[in-house]
Specification:
single chain; 181 residues; alpha+beta; Aminopeptidase; binds coenzyme A; Ribosomal protein S18 acetylase RimI-like enzyme; GNAT_dom; Acyl_CoA_acyltransferase
Length: 181
Amino acid sequence: MSLLQAENPVAGVRLATIDDTDLLVPFINHAFAPDNYFKRTERTNPSQVTDYLRNGFFLLLEDTVGLLGLIYTELREDNRGYIGMIAIDPDRQGAGIGTRLLRIGEEFCCEKGSSVIEIAVVNLRPDLVAWYQRKGYRVVGEAPYVRPEILVMPCHFILMEKTLAPTPTADPEPQLTPHPN
Ligand SMILES: CC(C)(COP(=O)(O)OP(=O)(O)OC[C@H]1O[C@@H](n2cnc3c(N)ncnc32)[C@H](O)[C@@H]1OP(=O)(O)O)[C@@H](O)C(=O)NCCC(=O)NCCS
């Protein structure tokens, strides 16, 4: 039984497909709207989501009513995973769903061989940097914003990383002690 099923028998996780683009784009843009003031454009669009689906995976957390939240994961070189674009239904934020999705994304990357997770947070979101720090991430550097042409104010990325705990290996075969005769 997966981590998620154990915690909530109603909600389930599935991988998004290209057919989910029309679900994902408005959901992500709605979730990010209050924090998107530094850009001329919305957070995402169908062409960007299509690119993301080519390069990585969106994990969707759903219940019987619909989508609760999602996380994007990408498997990179050198056993590194990337996580981004966590978006939770604004009516359901602050109830632990983001924390749960982050763990689900980390578990997904770990199962696929990642030992380190990378994230990039815009420097205008100190609240988010602090949130990730509480989840075990540390600041490792800075990088320029990827598309400066869409910015209405200067900003850059804060790069963060977390080393995942190694997956416990099965116990070795118990050593049989010879029975004293
Ligand atoms: C940032 C975001 C992903 C966080 O998701 P969330 O579901 O609101 O986050 P959580 O509820 O797990 O955590 C927020 C706080 O809620 C509180 N909380 C956590 N579990 C809770 C629970 N079971 N009950 C009540 N409150 C809880 C805690 O204070 C928690 O902070 P902490 O875990 O660091 O102590 C979400 O707000 C969001 O979608 N924002 C818009 C998009 C965005 O900015 N995404 C991030 C870019 S990667």
